[in-house]
Write a structure and sequence with these properties.
299 residues, alpha+beta, 4-stranded antiparallel β-sheet
């Protein structure tokens, strides 16, 4: 069954509730990504193309922590990570700590399809982007006034009550042939050290897909998702232990990550097109759509 889910990050709810106008903007952003991905599936396209289309939309939207509007390092720069995985052939591509690639998810796919590697980082990844003809942009392109404000609050140790969660973005999809795919993109955590890499670009931690099992994209406490091998744990629990997708996601979030002191969210889709969107934080920006008529946008 055709199915796609997207997320725009998970985190603590702001002390001041989102205004109706803010809620509308976030909902519109999630809907644009969801619809872009589902349009690919509807015309018979591959799940891989669908998740990339959805994530590109989120990377272009400065409300979300990926691409333009990414969180900033403690020096005030944007360093971006992304990963894409094709469940049909277990192929994956990822990039980390890139500073000038407008759409990191596009570069991750080029790594998967046009190189013999899985993960490229920093200057090496950007050199490959130039070889592939991808346009680079100044680092200033990614900075927004809100992310600068978040950085200032973080460095001062006084988080602002008006600031909304700023987490990873991602998408998972099942196409008409039953093939699964996942994609994740992020600016990481605010005030991170230069060179820090989270779970998003790490296969099996923040992103994983295998046909016959499931596709997963995670958001949250990156270091603990790495230590828990979270995305892979969901898939192996479905494939080898016989858990339902919902049970596997629930267990991963609450029995593996939460006891370590971490919180976050996971979106996932299984081989039947069943979608799960679960989280242990106060909020997770999310959306789901399938051929059975489900259409959900929620904050």
């Amino acid at each position: 069954m055709l199915a796609i889910a997207v997320h725009g990050g998970a985190g603590a709810a702001p002390r001041a509730p989102l205004s109706p106008a803010q809620q509308t903007l976030y909902r519109e952003g999630l809907a644009a990504a969801l619809d872009a991905g589902y349009a690919v599936l509807e015309r018979g396209g591959a799940s891989l193309d669908a998740v990339m289309a959805a994530v590109v939309q989120l990377e272009d939207n400065p409300l979300f922590n990926a691409g333009r509007g990414a969180a900033l390092t403690r020096e005030g720069a944007a360093e971006l990570d992304a990963c894409i995985m094709d469940g049909a052939r277990q192929r994956a591509g990822a990039v980390a700590a890139v500073r000038h690639v407008q759409h990191p998810i596009e570069l991750a796919r080029r790594v998967m399809e046009k190189s013999r590697h899985v993960l490229l980082v920093g200057a090496g990844a950007e050199e490959f982007a130039l070889e592939e003809g991808l346009a680079l942009v100044p680092n200033e392109y990614f900075r927004t006034a809100e992310r600068v404000q978040q950085l200032q609050h973080s460095l001062q140790g006084t988080p602002g009550s008006e600031l909304v969660p700023q987490g990873t973005v991602g998408a998972v999809a099942c196409d008409a042939r039953g093939h699964l795919a996942a994609a994740t993109s992020t600016g990481g955590m605010t005030a991170k050290r230069h060179g820090r890499v989270g779970d998003s670009p790490l296969v099996g931690a923040g992103t994983f897909a295998r046909d016959g099992a499931c596709a997963v994209s995670a958001t949250g406490h990156g270091e603990l998702f790495i230590r828990s091998v979270a995305a892979y744990h969901v898939c192996v629990s479905v494939e080898c232990r016989g858990l339902s997708l919902a049970a596997a996601v629930h267990e991963t979030l609450r029995e593996r990550i939460l006891p370590l002191g971490g919180q976050g969210g996971i979106i996932a889709v299984d081989a039947s097109g069943a979608l799960v969107l679960d989280f242990t934080t106060g909020m997770m920006f999310r959306g789901a759509r399938d051929a059975a008529g489900r259409y959900e946008i929620a904050l």
